[in-house]
User: Fold this.
Amino acid sequence: MFRRRVSGFDRREEVGGRARVLLRFLAVAAVLKLSVRQLIAATPNTRILRLTLDRSFGFHAGQAVLMGLPGGTRRPYSIACAPEVARAERYLEFLLKVDASGAAGPHLGTLEALDQVEVEGPFGSFRFPEQPVERNFLFIAGGTGVAPLRAMLWHALLTSREARIGIIYSVRSPDDLAYGDELELLARDRKIDFRPTITGDAGPSWTGDRGRIDLQRLRPLIAAPETLCFVCGPPALLQDMPPLLRRLGISETRIRMEER
Assistant:
């Protein structure tokens, strides 16, 4: 595991479970001032934020930015939309954790339409490769870790007709499935294999899977050893996944992870 600090932004990224040390990344990124286009309730504790893009903004699927109110502290957020969607729709999308009042924290407060937000970036090596040799992709999400994986998933769908895509998404309750309806629709259209699993109280109406992601839940999603796997979520998820994926024949070089 290694740490990367970028402009006061300390992130943990991991490749194949191996510890690596990187020098401080010194690149200077532009700071954009963008306006809020939409703020949509995704779950009781998260909001989808869309910021209007009035200029070009290049990034790779999976990357992040630093974001905050003008003149204030900026915090890291993964971009939750594919670059192709950002260009076509002219917005950047993010998944924000919020408190009971709807605020994302003092660095963003309670945002409303047309509010100004400063965005610096993009940053991060946790991203979908430009020309992957693999055609099988597995995304393993925990909580809000689904955000960068959604960007990668849509990028893969929009750029590769041959891609075989699976996503397993672990949350505490069905109400915590951000983008759940969208993923279910893609699954019904047979564009992806979507497998949500609930680790807490699912309630009697939940008919899907229950429990933590384990070997048996992963096995149907591994089409071949040449499957490129992306994991994003809490520390326990990052700790559990590499040995399970290796047991299923995935090499360390095909396991990409980021802590959320």
In short: Residues 136-259 form a domain with the Rossmann fold fold (CATH 3.40.50.80).
